[in-house]
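for the recovery benchmark. tokens below, seq after
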């Protein structure tokens, strides 16, 4: 099943089930319109009153494919812009009269159909006089018609007995349009619809979704783009009017539904189930999606506790996505779109799977890509958000520029948006994470001195988060082996052991500064300052740290703690063996060793008082 079939299937499942006035599921042959003025006519077809229509109060009106996707004079069947509906607009402004002529031609053809409502004919007779612009200026003196030309007008007619009836709410008008629209389509004949496989009236144009952007478009401008493959353009793509309307109306409904859509740096992301339910979003930046709804998150200080929480939440989502009538998981669809050009919209990503598979993929991401983060003032196991990953990869300045880019066109915005697009299949479809994302985050995290604000002050929290993100990404890439966030003292990889050494050096200086009131945490330790050089030339840099920079701080510590830490350094050196002289650059595993060693000192007690809990 393709994306357009999925949208049509969801539309059929939901048709008539949602009557939300703010975000209705629009029926085929209709659209929503925002009028600027309302005109009430008497039973004799004279203007009774003209009033401004309330802002943000949209109405449902008859529509055609040509009107919704128009790039020329293609009128809506009932109501339209002033330049279409006012016969005297062209004479008063000097603009083309073609809009009014085409509108009246279509409206009069509809009114000539047997059984057309009298109120519709009365409305048509008033417009045929060509006095609407004059009547508007009479009601609103000083009105500049050129500025009002693209504003829409709606009408109502007084019924016998004095009751005012709005034309777009009269059932006889709506039913007349349905019959007339079906007759027009039947007269046009049928073609093979590539969506349904049936012979149905083909769509002659496609609606605009946002601004002038279309998801499906065809431009036959004499360049013969399809020749050499097909004799006619319809052989390249033929979508029925019904399928096109259902798909586009479904997209509009999804884009207006909270919990289903996200707008991410110029990219629309839609995630929905075939019954309209809202599965968790894969690119959630407001925290851990699996923790949503929890009043109080328990202390998640172990990977096992975090996995249990994720598993419990996943089970709840699976149950919510069960189809009770068929006793099987509902289908879940993911579609990402963005404007490729001012007139074209492209699909960046599409995926469909059953609900269980989707939830399992999300759970796998959350349990494989996790590390210890500071959340709500406490250290706990968590999964980095896409925003935190983007910050670790590109830096906070780039993400901040992208967030402030209202037009979504700056280079920073494109970088962040592309990163989100790369993360999508990793999270939602369990695809391998590109290693260049890990290495970009690693390179930044290995340069702690670059994490400064506009005043040049070091941003400790931002750097620590970048280190944690890098460790989490490494966990995901290496998820084939048993990964733990706790210190693994038996682990013998060279990079991990060098990371532990740097963690010990950092801890020694922190403890010495804290004991002497030198303001630990307010300045970088020598281990932090030398981290970039340590990653590039570990053996050479460690020799300098150990022989020249650590000794003064070791001497400031209590004897027992100093002896305990010196013993740990010797033990790690013994485990390194010949690797202690290997000066080759270190990879991302070095940060896991560093982070785990630092955390071990602050989260457990030891017999030698070396890591007293603080």
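predicted aa per position
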């Amino acid at each position: 099943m393709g994306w357009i079939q999925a949208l049509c299937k969801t539309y059929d499942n939901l048709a008539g089930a949602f009557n939300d006035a703010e975000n209705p599921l629009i029926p085929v042959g209709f659209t929503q319109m925002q009028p600027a003025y309302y005109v009430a006519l008497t039973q004799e077809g004279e203007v009774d009153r003209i009033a401004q229509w309330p802002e943000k109060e949209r109405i449902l009106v008859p529509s055609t494919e040509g009107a919704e996707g128009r790039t020329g004079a293609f009128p809506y069947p009932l109501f339209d812009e002033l330049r279409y509906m006012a016969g005297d607009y062209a004479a008063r402004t000097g603009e083309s009269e073609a809009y009014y002529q085409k509108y009246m031609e279509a409206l009069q053809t509809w009114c000539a159909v047997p059984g057309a409502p009298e109120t519709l004919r009365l409305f048509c007779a008033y417009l045929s006089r060509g006095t609407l612009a004059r009547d508007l200026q009479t009601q609103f003196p000083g009105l500049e018609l050129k500025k009002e030309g693209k504003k829409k007008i709606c009408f109502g007619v007084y019924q016998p007995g004095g009751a005012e009836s709005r034309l777009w709410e009269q059932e006889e008008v709506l039913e007349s349009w349905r019959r007339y629209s079906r007759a027009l389509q039947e007269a046009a004949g049928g073609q093979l619809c590539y969506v349904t496989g049936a012979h149905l009236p083909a769509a002659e144009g496609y609606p605009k979704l946002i601004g002038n952007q279309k998801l499906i478009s065809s431009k036959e401008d004499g360049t013969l783009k399809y020749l050499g493959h097909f004799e006619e353009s319809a052989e390249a793509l033929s979508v029925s009017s019904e399928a096109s309307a259902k798909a586009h109306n479904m997209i509009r409904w999804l884009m207006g539904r909270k919990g289903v859509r996200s707008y991410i740096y110029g990219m629309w992301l839609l995630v929905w189930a075939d019954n309209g339910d809202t599965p968790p979003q894969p690119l959630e930046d407001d925290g851990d999606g699996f923790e949503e709804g929890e009043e109080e998150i328990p202390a998640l200080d172990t990977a096992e506790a975090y996995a249990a929480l994720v598993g419990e939440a996943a089970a709840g989502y699976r149950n919510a996505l069960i189809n009770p009538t068929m006793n099987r998981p509902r289908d879940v669809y993911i579609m990402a779109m963005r404007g490729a050009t001012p007139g074209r919209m492209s699909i960046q990503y599409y995926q469909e799977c059953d609900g269980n598979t989707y939830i399992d993929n999300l759970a796998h991401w959350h349990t494989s890509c996790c590390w210890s983060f500071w959340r709500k003032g406490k250290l706990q196991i968590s999964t980095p958000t896409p925003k935190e990953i983007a910050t670790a990869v590109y830096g906070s300045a780039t993400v901040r520029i992208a967030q402030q880019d209202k037009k979504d066109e700056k280079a920073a915005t494109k970088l962040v948006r592309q990163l989100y697009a790369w993360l999508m299949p990793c999270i939602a479809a369990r695809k391998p994470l590109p290693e260049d994302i890990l290495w970009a985050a690693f390179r930044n995290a290995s340069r702690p001195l670059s994490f400064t604000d506009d005043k040049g002050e070091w941003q400790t929290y931002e750097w620590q988060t970048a280190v944690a993100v890098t460790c989490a990404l490494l966990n995901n890439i290496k998820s084939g082996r048993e990964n733990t966030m706790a210190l693994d003292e038996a682990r013998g990889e060279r990079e991990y052991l060098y990371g532990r050494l740097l963690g010990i050096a950092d801890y020694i200086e922190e403890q010495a500064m804290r004991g002497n009131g030198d303001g630990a945490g307010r300045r970088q330790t020598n281990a932090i300052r030398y981290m970039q050089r340590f990653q590039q030339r570990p053996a050479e840099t460690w020799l300098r740290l150990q022989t020249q920079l650590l000794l003064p701080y070791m001497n400031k510590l209590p004897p027992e703690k100093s002896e305990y830490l010196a013993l740990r350094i010797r033990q790690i050196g013994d485990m390194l063996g010949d690797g202690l002289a290997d000066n080759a650059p270190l990879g991302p595993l070095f940060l896991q060793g560093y982070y785990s060693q630092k955390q071990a000192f602050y989260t457990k007690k030891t017999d030698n008082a070396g890591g007293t809990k603080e």
